[in-house]
């Protein structure tokens, strides 16, 4: 990996940035070359010539950034700011470049900016999880996102999905991809661990996954809303309870005494949440799905829950009066809405045919950003755009949606990295069918 902190101004001028380096400079400049190369879809073996060793360095730096964040992110979007909310990516790297990052990236490319009549808008990003598995370039997706998080910690926000968990991403492609792209490149084993069973790079990425926040609250001039990857559980009540969870212990591969993990003691507040409740809450945030039922039922996925309209309404009502911080980095924020209620929930986790879908009478928005999922679903992808200036004077948050088809480079490419398609692989095929991509129609509205 090339460290750009020692590069000349002339060399730095050749880099491609997601944000203008003058107005929004990188925090460390350590990963600007990695970001630039990946934004140009360079081969990961060129980006990380050291293989697993380079991935390890990235993961250690990303962990230091993420462990300083709360389990629930408080994201304030002022009237001068803009936010893009992103659903599942699942290793579809070309689609992430071509569609998800495009509103910001296109403004930075010279051939796009010359003669452009569009006013410049800087976008922040909130990703709702499921970065890896199934798609052909999971390593590239998570590597770029972690590098962006390190360099732009107040512009790129990442929360955890159910595939950012070792037992899941061991089975559905990410482990195998790490071995083939990073561990074999480095030519090194992983100590006493059998290379057939695991991967040094994969272990490091999973260390980072344990520190990803679990949820977010977004506030803007027209109100607030809650975001998570999956949904709710019978034990999910107060956001303050979620903030107290020891998220880094969920799904970790080693004992808490390992040097890979920093275990912090429970706070007095977190003692109110039992270990059983902790698991139920996190299972729900990562795995649950909204359904037209009353209360909660066990999920057919085998983890998490199906939750009804009444559960969504109760959670939003329980957090009436939630206060977003009005200070960021020591500076007083521009005013945001003083409306005390959470208006709705935004989540990902389910493939929907049009890329987004409202359910529970406008209380739940499902967002899915991987078009033509697994190369065979024919669904559209979507991202949600929140423009701060458009919220001024409104009584309800108004999201815009950008809907897109799959990038041509991914059409027909399946999820497995073993040479078989997802349809040919019964394990992947069966699990894919359980993700309820097949045209499940949630009630549109809002």
From TrEMBL:
InterPro entries xrefs: Calcineurin-like_PHP, Metallo-depent_PP-like, PP1_catalytic_subunit, Ser/Thr-sp_prot-phosphatase
Domain of life: Eukaryota
SUPFAM superfamilies with a match to the protein in the record: Metallo-dependent phosphatases (SSF56300)
EC numbers for this chain: 3.1.3.16
UniProt domain Serine/threonine specific protein phosphatases: residue ranges: 159-164
Keywords (A to Z) from UniProt: Hydrolase
Reaction(s) catalysed (UniProt annotation): O-phospho-L-threonyl-[protein] + H2O = L-threonyl-[protein] + phosphate
GO terms for cellular component: cytoplasm; nucleus
Alphabetized GO MF terms: protein serine/threonine phosphatase activity
Alphabetized PANTHER family for the sequence: SERINE/THREONINE PROTEIN PHOSPHATASE, SERINE_THREONINE-PROTEIN PHOSPHATASE
Similarity field: Belongs to the PPP phosphatase family.
Record's protein name: Serine/threonine-protein phosphatase
């Amino acid at each position: 990996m090339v460290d750009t902190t020692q590069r000349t101004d002339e060399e730095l001028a050749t880099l491609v940035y997601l944000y203008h380096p003058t107005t929004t400079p990188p925090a460390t400049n350590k990963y600007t070359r990695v970001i630039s190369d990946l934004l140009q879809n360079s081969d990961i073996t060129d980006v990380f010539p050291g293989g697993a060793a380079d991935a390890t360095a990235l993961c250690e730096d990303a962990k230091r950034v993420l462990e300083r964040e709360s389990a629930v992110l408080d994201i304030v979007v002022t009237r001068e700011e803009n936010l893009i909310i992103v659903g599942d990516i699942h290793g579809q790297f070309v689609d992430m470049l071509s569609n998800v990052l495009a509103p910001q990236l296109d403004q930075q490319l010279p051939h796009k900016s010359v003669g452009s009549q569009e006013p410049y808008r800087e976008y922040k990003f909130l990703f709702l999880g499921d970065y890896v598995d199934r798609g052909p370039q999971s390593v590239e997706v998570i590597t770029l996102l972690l590098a962006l998080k390190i360099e732009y910690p107040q512009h790129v926000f990442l929360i955890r999905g159910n595939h950012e968990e070792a037992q899941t991403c061991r089975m559905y492609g990410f482990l195998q991809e790490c071995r083939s792209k990073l561990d074999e490149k480095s030519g090194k084993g992983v100590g006493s661990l059998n290379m057939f069973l695991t991967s040094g790079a994969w272990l490091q990425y999973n260390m980072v996954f344990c520190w990803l926040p679990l949820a977010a609250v977004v506030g803007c001039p027209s109100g607030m809303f809650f975001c998570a990857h999956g949904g709710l559980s019978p034990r999910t009540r107060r956001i303050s309870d979620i903030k107290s969870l020891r998220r880094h212990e969920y799904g970790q591969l080693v004992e808490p005494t390992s040097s890979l993990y920093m275990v912090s003691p429970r706070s007095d507040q977190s003692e109110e949440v039992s270990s059983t409740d902790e698991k139920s809450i996190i299972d729900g945030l990562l795995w649950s799905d909204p359904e037209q039922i009353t209360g909660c039922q066990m999920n057919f996925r085998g983890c998490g829950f199906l939750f009804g309209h009444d559960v969504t309404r109760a959670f939003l009502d329980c957090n009436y009066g939630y206060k977003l911080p009005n200070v960021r980095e020591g500076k007083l924020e521009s005013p945001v809405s003083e409306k005390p209620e959470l208006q709705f929930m935004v989540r990902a986790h389910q493939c929907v045919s049009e890329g987004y879908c409202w359910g529970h009478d406008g209380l739940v928005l499902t967002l899915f950003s991987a078009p033509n999922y697994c190369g065979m679903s024919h669904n559209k992808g979507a991202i949600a755009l929140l423009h701060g200036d458009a919220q001024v004077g409104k009584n309800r948050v108004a999201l815009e949606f950008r809907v897109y088809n799959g990038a041509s480079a991914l059409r027909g490419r399946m999820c497995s990295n073993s040479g078989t398609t997802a349809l040919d692989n019964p394990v992947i095929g069966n699990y894919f069918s359980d993700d309820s991509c097949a045209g499940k129609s949630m009630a549109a509205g809002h």
